[in-house]
Specification:
131 residues; alpha+beta; 6-stranded mixed sheet; TNase-like domain-containing protein; SNase_OB-fold_sf; Staphylococal_nuclease_OB-fold
Length: 131
Amino acid sequence: MAQFAGAPIVNARPDTVSVRFGICGGGARVTCVVDGDTIWLRGQKIRIADIDTPEVSSPRCPAELERGRLATQRMVELLNAGPFTLEPGARAQDRYGRALFVVTRAGASVGGALVDEGLAVWYGNGRPDWC
């Protein structure tokens, strides 16, 4: 069960995904973080389904860009903190063709840390004005 709008996740499986992430740059994207809610994992582009973070590629203002960069860096830190699990989202793909997964560790949403820190909102709770 995914954690949309703050609902709990039930995950009885052990966390098994463990790789090192950096921030995506130019060139091929294999395993890296695009922004706070989009990653590449072993060549697959993944949208973190339960959160929405500020934009870094097309921000509406400097404040959104700054917060988006903070969310991106924080997601790198969270993913590199230890093994995690990818839980299927409500749909397999979004409208951009990205696979949809909720990232969990010990049964809790990794994205929840970004929400708690003001760097994300739960997906489905409306789009905030980051500006």
